[in-house]
Amino acid sequence: MSNQCPHQPALADTSVFLSYRWLTWLLAGAAVVWQGVTQQYILPLMAAALLNLLAAVLSRQYAQVSQRYPAILSLDIVYCVAMLMVTGGWAGPLSFYALSGVVLPALLFGWRGGFMAGLLTVSLTLALYLRNGQQPTLLVAQERNVELLAMLLLAPCFGLCFPVAVEYLRHRSARRAAPRRAPRSYFDEPSGGERGDIGGIRRGGGPARTADRSLALGGHPQGGAGPAIRTAAEPHVEDLRRMLYAPMPQLDMDFQRWMQICITRFSDYTGATARVTVLGRPHALRYPHQVVLQRLLQESLLNIHQHAHATKVDVTLRYDPLSIALLIQDNGIGLLDGSFERPRLHALRAMQYRFAELGGRLDVFETEGSGVTVRATAPLEP
Predict the structure, then answer these.
(1) Domain boundary residue among 152, 175, 198?
(2) Residues 370 and 299 occupy one common structural domain
(3) Can you say whether residue 309 is alpha, beta or left, with left for phi > 0 and alpha for psi between -120 and 50 degrees?
(4) What is the extent of the structural domain holding 27?
(5) Is residue 5 domain-resident?
(6) Is the dihedral of CA 72, 90, 25, 19 positive or negative?
(7) CB pairs under 8 A, 24+ apart, for 157-160?
(8) Backbone angles phi, psi at 273, to 5 degrees
(9) Each residue of 242-251: b (16+ CB within 10 Å) or e?
(10) Co-location of 279 and 312 in the same domain
């Protein structure tokens, strides 16, 4: 089974954005045909279809530019509100299609971005109602309370909930992709075979490594000792998490300096030997690249400490003229039975979507001998 990230995962931001826009367009078209008002809405539907095709062609570039200049997203919101108003407002067939202007801000910037996009949608809708001489309060007099509530609440609530639902689906998908293994007891190791002892963890033969990995998955010694071990370990993991995510001395620190401080914190806390290597000519990274690389390094180091039991970590940052690559290698516990999962790598798998949005990829594979290598690459704009 390959661990390689597909070029455009089904739950990537642009895929979700386009899927929602086409699905709501199809539903609107079906509603128009069902109600027998095709002539009234044929032009807006055709215009929406053409713009959907344009969005499909330019979706990745649009998402990347929007990450750098978020104000550009307001143009899409203006378009969606305009389509809403020319098709009868929130009582019209394109009401859910109009919410697609909130989708990409919510995916790129989380619930805060979705909520702000929803508020902008409400503001523009109210402004156009007033511009056309329609007082929103008249909806109450006309007993159109549901339409008024939709106008005021639907877009902001949608912006709050949509990114949460997508993240839940992503993590659920990552967990389903993980191979399921029955946990084994720590003491269920066959005797014999060549084994070494590194840092208190038995290594060498395949069965011994499987038992060690099963302990990391949640298997525990007979007699109930396993939960006690896990309970005692969790506070240390949270302490390291707080340390890795603690603010840096400077806000505008470049990634190379940030990475060095993060690795130093990890090494000081865990006692593991950590080495940083920088190849190529360093240059400034765009904000989206720096954020996703920082998150990848933090989650990888947490996984190494909690489950790999490594004594050595090598981090390599390679600058190329048109791309950047980050390699994180450890000498700890490998992958489960040669597959592409180690315990709690779900957070890393979920990040495949982020790298796909940058046009890059994230690979996780077993290092020859022992340990795991996390390799991330992303193209850079010239």
Answers:
(1) 175
(2) yes
(3) left
(4) 13-175
(5) no
(6) positive
(7) 157/118, 158/99, 158/102, 158/114, 158/118, 159/102, 159/105, 159/106, 159/111, 159/113, 159/114, 159/115, 159/116, 159/117, 159/118, 160/111, 160/114, 160/115, 160/118
(8) -80, 125
(9) eebeeeeeee
(10) yes
**217-257 pLDDT tens trace:** 333 333 344 444 344 445 567 778 888 877 776 666 788 88
Give a yes or no: residue 6 inside a domain: no
Tell me if 8 is assigned to some domain: no
Q: Per mean pLDDT, which range of 38-47, 171-180, 287-296, 353-362 is the poorest? A: 171-180
| CA atoms within 13 Å, Cβ hemisphere of 52 | 21
Residue 205, CA distances (Å) to 148, 308, 337, 373 in order? 68, 16, 12, 20
Nearest-CA neighbor of 69 among 287, 285, 251?
A: 287
| Three-state secondary structure call for residue 372 | strand
β-strands 372-379, 323-330: how paired? antiparallel
Q: Find all residues with CB under 8 Å of 150, minimum gap 6, and list them.
A: 90, 95
Q: Are both 171 and 182 inside the same structural domain?
A: no
C-alpha span between 243 and 253 (Å, rounded): 17
Residue 285, in any domain of the structure:
yes
The helix/strand count (H/E) of the chain reads as 14, 7
What's the token pair of residue 72? 């550009």
Supply the CATH number for residue 297's domain.
Answer: 3.30.565.10
Number of domains into which the chain is organized: 2
With a threshold of 0.85, does the pTM exceed it? no
